[in-house]
Amino acid sequence: MIIERLITYEEGDRYIEVPFLVTPNMERIHVSMEVTANGPGDCVIDLGVRDIESVRGWSGGARTEFYMESEQATPGYIPGELMEGEWSVLLGTYRIPPAGCRVRVEVTCTPKQGRWLKGDLHMHTVHSDGALTIAENAKTMAELGCDFLAMTDHNTYSQNLAYPRESGVVLIPGMELTTNHGHANLLGVVRPIQDFRAVSSEQVQERLQEARRNGARIVLNHPHCPNCGWEWEWSVDYDWVEIWNGPWREANQQTLTWWHEQLCSGRRLVAVGGSDMHRPDTYSKHSMPTTWVYAASRTIEGILEGIDTGRVFLSFSPEGPTLELNAGQFQMGDVVPAQAPERAGNVTLVVKELQVGDTVKLISNRGVEVSCVVYHEESLELMGDMAGRTFYRAEVWRYFTEVQANLLAAVSNPLYLD
């Protein structure tokens, strides 16, 4: 919406309201202002905004644009709910030339809408044993084109109180519950537990139960790591499992194999990844691997709810490869009912951002159904028969000259067949 207004000299030293309507289910409001003086003389228009209840932000003459979201906003403006109703852009007529001026205000309201977002669910900062600040991590993630990162410092929540709200990425509060016999990420809550100390299975259960009561999502991290794998009981309460931690290595392969066995047994368990980045080096880097989530909104809860649905795939970097796994209207994470019309067709896998030599695998509970080597395509489509299968998932393998090895480049969560 664009609103143009002539401000006369007689309207100087006032606060003018320019109303606009915010409809339901908005994710972002962006306002920009252009001022053109009519003739000589000082011309200064201050800028701010009022929501349906009160003044929500003010930047005076320091800015000509601002944005607001539920969790982040331009400095000087308050993030939070974007309530439905009549808002107003506030124009402070601080200096008006004798002939007046023209103000052009453009208001853009972006609705919540489902789309793929990408980021990193496991990262450390100076709040524990990481080398970088939250702001430095967020800056790097934004430069990579990522949408989110989780702040998962060991056994502390101070990072969740210190994050920069003006960051260009969504910062998910978290904590890595770190014990001598296993680690678990607690995501989505500023202070998931009161006391991290756990030296018995019973205490671990208590900590995870407390995190659950407080609303946290629970991830078992690098469960087959030889140094800090999961040695507690597997029957603990958790939501997701980290099958890809940092550079691809044997411990990740063990977790991938274990996860596939869980799927074959009938369990529906969401797989995620994380760089576990403490300090960048040749092999450990931000968002390597990258977790891709089909989210209803670019918010903390939108991203976490998206992971809950299983609409998630992992790639070795933010550039991909990217995966789509569908059966008609159903996509990865969904369950295709036995009587659905789609069951008469095939599962379709579409892979993009491929390189020559990549191997694409379409895998079911019966094992590898289709394996295809890429010779020249940047994208590839494979089909799978649904009869007698309980799920399909996909993998992409690539030869990396840096380490002279064939490593996982992407992996999808399953599309389930009821």
Question: What can you tell me about this protein's structure?
Answer:
- The chain is mainly β and 418 residues long.
- It has 3 domains: 110 residues, Jelly Rolls (Sandwich), CATH 2.60.120.380; 207 residues, TIM Barrel (Alpha-Beta Barrel); 96 residues, Immunoglobulin-like (Sandwich).
- Helix content is 12%, strand content 42%.
- The chain is built from 5 helices and 27 strands.
- The protein has a 15-stranded mixed β-sheet that branches. Strands 1-8-3-6 form a 4-stranded antiparallel β-sheet, with no helix packed on it. The protein has a 4-stranded antiparallel β-sheet with strand order 2-7-4-5, with no helix packed on it.
- A hairpin with a 2-residue loop joins strand 22 and strand 23.
- The radius of gyration is 25 Å and the shape is globular.
- The two termini are 47 Å apart.
- InterPro entries: PHP_dom, PHP_domain, Pol/His_phosphatase_N, Pol/histidinol_Pase-like.
What low-confidence regions span 5 or more consecutive residues with pLDDT below 50?
Answer: none
Overall CATH architecture of the largest domain: Alpha-Beta Barrel
Q: What's the main sheet like? A: 15 strands, mixed
- Helix fraction, binned, reads 10-25%
What's the level 1 CATH class of the largest domain?
Alpha Beta
Stated plainly, the CATH topology of the largest domain is called TIM Barrel
By CATH, the superfamily of the largest domain comes out as: Metal-dependent hydrolases
Beta strands, count? 27
Task: Tell me the structural class.
Answer: mainly beta
Q: Span from first to last CA?
A: 47 Å
Radius of gyration: 25 Å
Mean pLDDT: 96
- Total helical segments: 5
